[in-house]
Amino acid sequence: MRPLVLNPLFASLTSLPGVGTKLEQLYGRLLGREQPRVIDLLLHMPSGIIDRRARPKLRDVRDGQLVTVAVRVEEHRPPPPSRGRAPYRVVTSDDTNTLTLTFFHARKDYLEKLLPVGETRYVSGVAEFYDGNLQMVHPDRVVDEKGFADLPLVEPVYPLTEGLTLGVVRRAMDGALARLPDLPEWQDEAWASREQFPGFAAALHHVHRPTEPHDIAPESRAFTRLAFDELLAGQLALALLRAHMRREAGRGSSSEGRLRAKVMKALPYALTHSQQQAVNDIINDLALPQRMLRLLQGDVGSGKTVVALIAASAVIEAGRQAAIMAPTEILARQHLATIAPLAEAAGIRVALLTGRDRGGERDAILDRLVLGDIDLVIGTHALFQEDVAFHDLALAIVDEQHRFGVHQRLALTQKGNAVDVLVLTATPIPRTLVLTYFGDMDVSELREKPAGRQPIDTRTIALDRIADVEDAIGRAIDEGKRAYWVCPLVEESEKIDLAAAEARYKELRKRFGAKVDLIHGKMKSAEKDAAMARFAAGDSQLLIATTVIEVGVDVPEATIMVIEHAERFGLAQLHQLRGRVGRGAGKSTCLLLYKGPLGETAKARLAILRESEDGFRIAEEDLKLRGEGDLLGTRQSGLPGFHIARPETHGKYLSVARDDAALVLTRDPNLETPRGQALRDLLYLFGKDEAIKLIRAG
Ligand code: ADP
Ligand code: MG
């Protein structure tokens, strides 16, 4: 049960003064939770700061700068009555330049009171050049001399969502800070004092009520403390999970390797050296009377599926069962397609179970599973539904792990007795970050590409040459080639993504006819499968897609990948997308269409892709580039699961957090000491309390 002292932080945001159900909805969108709580707001970090200590002259203001300036109000220009929806402008100036304040849907009497002609006002907001003139749309604050004296000299800026203003968020934050109880310290005291960490509550105060800009920089002591809290919570949860899993001693599934040999014999190729090495690692693990927790990391196309099948064959030979869980139905079907012929040759009984299976057919599969008439089941989330039971599940293989939460992983492993776990990931994560996502797992890497793969010719092309690209695609289609065309990622709105993809589809379909097909995330899975099947069969040759094809899709005959607005994608994502081609014998090309002019970082990112196909190297470079990114500006949120800790700044604290978590559990496995109790608070605050249930009862 959650400690009572935390209750005020877990109360609904609507318990704060001024937050009603309408605002709650907006906060819900902002904070990514339907019914946001006080703690969710407190952990919403500022993205920048307003510094009122320096008030630049208008002459010195840069485009896009967040500034506070002192200006004289010169003139009001209300919209003409005939164009009531035009903006209301107020012209202001200092002795160096003029600044136009622009208001939409403004009330005249209100603005006249706020900005009386002839008087001086302090105005803050984002200044921009518009047709060469400096302007500010909806200033954040407009105050007179006295009001200015009452304003904090530095003030945080938060990421917002439409309808929420900074003022509203700050007020709510005040209310939230006031709710902070005095919590016992959960960090090791010697460590906290060496790092000069403020306490949890003090750190939140620093970050949300900074006294100087540095307070909210990620490297500040306050920010770092909170980041470390987040890392420690994550590592402690993983350590608890691991302890829980290790506690149930494993069962050795030893095999002579007869079945494995049959699978290998059915392969039309030889395993690469690193596939062989991974197979050896796994077979050894499986034979040991301890549970396996192994991560198989391999770049796209490096051949993880066959390694997974060989692993499965080892437990199947011992008379037990294996399951492969994929994040999407397309992927599950694709695994099935790769595996089915090999399995048949080896006499392994395979079935597919997805959310689409219902009724009698599903019942039949469930019956066969529980009777042990299926050796290997491949599926989606449907696999860990409650009524799915196994005869004797020995090995759970989880593909694209970071899309599943810890408790989902657990749900599958609890369907058997001491289930061994193999996690497959196609996202090459730098070693330093493996720990963050997977905790203390053993790792096998597939670093080489299967023999016979040709390098992908990667080129960057400015978007205004799109007509040339379309011509080239036309020629390729005539030659019988197959191509993907990935449409831009716009904002976070799937609707807009879709519109872009549909528009491109219509245009290209008009030009190239029935050879053009469309696939996107809003389609029913049967429709998606059908579109994939048409493309795989060659019935369609140009597949327009949103990023649904990012993960794992395998059509070896596809040799061209066009990515529109490549500058909007993350490096890892581009690499994943490109990995959809270059899988067969044909020579492949990847065209990265970008909208110029590119910033330095964007240029560097595209250059890395041109230079390298090594996913591990790309991941490392990605990390470096982000480190050099704008300190407090908008960042790519490339790594899921963390709100506060940033890999480039706080990555070095990860191993400390892991060691600390391990030490805590050695000394206090049930979190019963005073520090252990405090750590339970930490787990709740960071939403890791699932892990508390894993503590051995009694
Ligand atoms: P991923 O690691 O992305 O999941 P897959 O397992 O889907 O990669 O393998 C990609 C393709 O490479 C498949 O068509 C598979 O049959 C083929 N493949 C796997 N291993 C080898 C190998 N050693 N030599 C040649 N082709 C291989
Ligand atoms: Mg795969």
Any overview of this molecule?
It is a single chain. The protein has 698 residues and is α/β, with parallel strands linked by helices. Among the domains are: 54-151, Beta Barrel (OB fold (Dihydrolipoamide Acetyltransferase, E2P)), CATH 2.40.50.140; 258-446, P-loop containing nucleotide triphosphate hydrolases (Rossmann fold, 3-Layer(aba) Sandwich), CATH 3.40.50; 456-612, Rossmann fold, CATH 3.40.50.300. The chain has a seven-stranded parallel sheet with strand order 11-12-10-13-14-9-15, with helices on both faces. Strand 20, helix 20 and strand 21 (588-594) form a beta-alpha-beta unit. Helix 10 (258-266) packs across helix 13 (329-346). The structure holds adenosine-5'-diphosphate and magnesium ion (MG).
Brief account:
This protein is α/β, with parallel strands linked by helices. Among the domains are: 54-151, Nucleic acid-binding proteins (OB fold (Dihydrolipoamide Acetyltransferase, E2P), Beta Barrel); 258-446, 3-Layer(aba) Sandwich (Rossmann fold), CATH 3.40.50.300; 456-612, P-loop containing nucleotide triphosphate hydrolases (Rossmann fold), CATH 3.40.50.
Which residues sit in consecutive blocks of at least 5 with pLDDT less than 50? Answer: 490-494, 627-640
Shape: globular
Under the CATH scheme, the architecture of the domain at 258-446 is 3-Layer(aba) Sandwich
Total number of beta strands: 21
Through-space gap between termini: 15 Å
Topology:
Blueprint: H1 7-10, H2 21-31, H3 38-42, E1 48-51, E2 66-77, E3 88-93, E4 98-103, H4 108-114, E5 120-130, E6 133-137, E7 141-143, H5 145-150, E8 154-157, H6 166-178, H7 189-194, H8 200-208, H9 221-247, H10 258-266, H11 273-287, E9 293-298, H12 304-317, E10 321-325, H13 329-346, E11 350-353, H14 359-371, E12 376-379, E13 393-399, H15 406-413, E14 420-425, H16 431-438, E15 442-446, E16 456-462, H17 466-478, E17 482-486, H18 494-512, E18 516-519, H19 525-537, E19 542-545, E20 558-563, H20 571-578, E21 588-594, H21 600-611, H22 615-628, H23 647-650, H24 654-667, H25 674-685
Parallel strand pairs: 4-6, 9-14, 9-15, 10-12, 10-13, 11-12, 13-14, 16-21, 17-19, 17-20, 18-19, 20-21
Antiparallel strand pairs: 1-8, 2-3, 2-5, 3-4, 5-6, 5-7
Helix pairs in contact: 8-9, 9-24, 10-12, 10-13, 11-12, 21-22
Bound molecules: adenosine-5'-diphosphate and magnesium ion.
